[in-house]
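Below is how a single chain appears once it has passed through the pipeline. First comes the sequence as given, then the structure the pipeline wrote out for it. We keep one example in the README because the format questions we get most often are answered faster by looking than by reading.
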Amino acid sequence: MMRKTLILLTCTLSVSLFLGTAQAQKQPKMAVSDHISLMDADENYQKEYWDAAYKLYRDLHIKYPDHSLISYKAGKVSYKLKKYDEALTFLTKASTKKPKGVKDLEFWLGQAQHKEGMLDEALVNYEAYRKTLKGKAQTTDIVNDYMHQVSLAKKLMSTPVNVTIKNMGEAVNTEFTESNPSVTADGRVLIFSTCRPENTGGQKDPTFGIYYQDIWMSERDSVSGEWMDAEIIKGALNSNAHDASPSISPDGNVIIIYRSINGGDLYYSKRRRNGDWREPEQIKGKVNTTYFESSGCITADKKRIFFVSEREGGSKGAKAQGNCDIWMATKKGTYEYDEPVNLGATINTIDDEVSVFVHPDGNTIFFGSNGKNSIGGYDIFKSEWKNGKWTTPINLGFPINTLGDEKQFSLTADGTKAYVTSSREDSKGEFDIYEIDLTNYVLPDPEGLNQGSTGITSGSISILKGKVLDGKEGTPLESVVKITDDKGHVIDELETSESGDFLIVLEGAITYTISVKQDGFKPYEEKITLPKTPGKTETVVKAIFLEDAD
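Resulting structure:
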């Protein structure tokens, strides 16, 4: 009897709540079972179970197409799922009969219009929403950032940068997600992460419903210049879990990857002589924490690492600026890095910085951010280290950046080709990798913020790359190559890879001394002058053959 009474009271309460809500908002009447479905949808939305909430709201909208509150909620969750065209349809319909008690309909409608390129309309709705705010909120609410983004988008889209962008096609992209492109300094090797069934283990992540990410590689054909069909990277680099956010060192001998361990940590893998990759080892020192760390990128000399972290701060007083920030740490030992420093408020925002790429010159970074100076979603920015500080980041412009998300970026040393993760009309999957021809690129600066170079790179770059070999057997040698300038100052001591390779970025028009000392071989020494051509990257390739000590 008590159980029946409880059920009766529950049903009566549900009906009362429903009738009260419907009467207050003058919405079409709903069956009790559908009202319960609406509450389930709301609960899923609050828990950020977007797919479940979307299905419930969509089904309810089919039954009650004139219920503006359902249209409003269906619009919001469609936006969360990046179904922007559906979000615009739902929210536009809701706006014809604005549901009572809803205070942010104009905000969400502006968001959908922003993504769909209706910039003037978005600005009108953003402003309408802003006027409903009280006191300081009118100037501090995030809608002000979105209004700034729309204004910037109108400027950048009216003067597109001079680039050619093409989908990398079937050699790299599939119906699944491809992301995190990273290219070697010479532009001959491209690695990326992908969620496809051919990956190691072939299993899906039960949380996100996607195949676990693995690292794949494509090489540029030396004759045709075309990218060859990508293959899963050889060796022990990939695991059965997520191996993602890769970056390859400029010389192509080290890969930094993210693994979903300990909240998300950074690992490194070294290339063997036969081209296979070793089992990744965790980066040592102060880089990894119990917080999320990802998107690590090392400089050409491997003395610094730039990476993204959600940490709150460091032991030296470094404080985070937002949720995900870019940090930098200096080498302490072999793949061991000291206490990181936050790149500061010039680079990091209260929003998210999600990726970072450091150019082989070691002084130019490119990163993905959804801060106020993006034009919509995540954009790619450039900053340079000048006079002891980072220059104000500059948006790379349209159509490199779009109203959608561009999160990851990589660039050849000569600045002629770049690679970006993006979702565009010709994308094969949710995200594809695109190649950008930057031959005629000039950095846009509609707000007069540029304090650095106007090109994609800082100007003249000279690269010395080579291989140390046994002069008799022709086999590669692991050794140390010392580079000294014309004044006798030691510039660097490079450890060659297992394949005997080394690479260093140097100032051109200077004569350097290359010296190698190796047990069992005669000391080697040679002078070499690196060329310097204004606005270009010069590369000198040197094969060093060591003679037996006998």
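The two ends are 103 Å apart (CA to CA).

See the next section for the split statistics.
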